[in-house]
Amino acid sequence: MLPKLFQDLLKEWHLQLERPLPWVNEKDPYKIWISEIILQQTRVVQGLPYYKRFLDNFPNVIALANATEAEVIKCWEGLGYYSRARNIHWSAKYIVKEYDGVFPSQYDEIIKLKGVGPYAAAAIASFAFSLPYAVLDGNVHRVISRIFSITTDITTSKGRKIIQDIADKLLDKENPAGFNQAIMDFGATVCLPASPLCDQCVFADHCTSYLTDTQRDFPFKKIKKPLRNRYFHLFLVKAGKHIFLSHRKEKDIWRGLYTLPFIETRDERCEFPLEGIQIGGISIDENQIQILNYTDQQLLTHQRIHLYYYQVTIETGGEKIAGDSIEMIPLTNIKEFAFPKFLLRFIADNKSLFEYN
After folding, report:
1. Distance CA 182, CA 210 (A)
2. Across residues 169-183, what is the average pLDDT?
3. What are the DSSP calls for 35-88, one per residue?
4. What is the pLDDT of residue 222?
């Protein structure tokens, strides 16, 4: 299909679309950047309130740079993939230091920001600065791979290059922002992953996969590796009107967040040693541990986390808690800490366990 025909059909379709989102037609590179990072691994419906909340707390790059990492993580709480929050915080400081707080305006500069890959850099460059870079998100991958029946695995560098080359040729270089928004919207509303609306598709007469009834075979991806199962046993340790929290500092899941102290085991069984366990330097006997009738799972990109909960009640005179990662905090202050989504769910489902009256 000739680029001009593709552009005309896409433009005509997009003129009829009503999809009001706060970042559409936005020209502020900071706001575009935040929206693109939030929408990585996050659906629009879920990400929208976070986008608004984030801008309320950090309305510009300088405000973000001046914030603490804990404040940024807390604002991100519940959105997941917290490395995104750490990356934008680092990048905001970098922009203040290297560009005097002015967002970089060239693609080669934008892509140097932490967590900004080719897609996000192209989106910011085209939407904010009208530079001729074609975006390549999941929606665009799907549209192009179906129309042109790309049989190369799109998760490989070869597959991505094939799609990128086609997108670059199709791009309307006189209006890259409008083109990029239109093709992403088309993938999000018509060329859907499981049930594409082919009867509404303006490219139906030119879509090779539709004409051969193979549209559901694209985009082509090889079978994923099985998920790694991990088993965590979490302890709600209560000492009067206080509980113990563990601050995750190591380079692993939930980094920068607070969780209940836990033990990781090879399977769902948790066999406590005869001498008991230690949490925050305090010895816990097996007879102090109450198994809670509550289990949960968290599905990550490459891992399935199995969660089991226990309650421990101890008496403490407020002695110092051992270990840099364990803190004893008042129950009244629990909302000040940033937790993974699974722990927020546990707290909401077990409010009586966190009462302090």
Report:
1. 20
2. 96
3. HHHHTTTS-HHHHHHHHHHHHHH--SHHHHHHS-HHHHHHHHTTS--THHHHHH
4. 80
Q: What is the pLDDT of residue 316?
A: 62
Q: How many CB atoms lie within 10 A of CB 187?
A: 21
Annotated catalytic residue: which of 12, 26, 36, 336?
Answer: 36
Q: Map tokens 């808690």 to a residue.
A: 321
- Compute the average pLDDT of residues 195-220: 94
240: its two tokens = 């009067």
Tokens of 192: 């859907």
Rounded distance, CA 339 to CA 74, Å? 8
Distance CA 47, CA 283 (A): 42
Does pLDDT of 198 surpass 90?
Answer: yes
In the beta sheet, which residues pair with residue 277? 284
Q: Alpha-carbon distance 247 to 327, whole Å?
A: 8
Catalytic-residue membership of 355: no
Q: Which domains does the chain have, with CATH numbers?
A: 3-217 (1.10.340.30), 228-354 (3.90.79.10)
Closest CA to 204 of 63, 196, 341, 129: 196
Report the alpha-carbon distance of residue 190 to residue 146 in Å, rounded.
Answer: 12
**pLDDT of 270 over the 50 cut:** yes
Q: What is the pLDDT of residue 81?
A: 85
| pLDDT band (50, 70, 90) for residue 318 | very low
Percent of the chain whose pLDDT exceeds 70:
94
The dihedral sign for the CA sequence 288, 294, 299, 302? positive
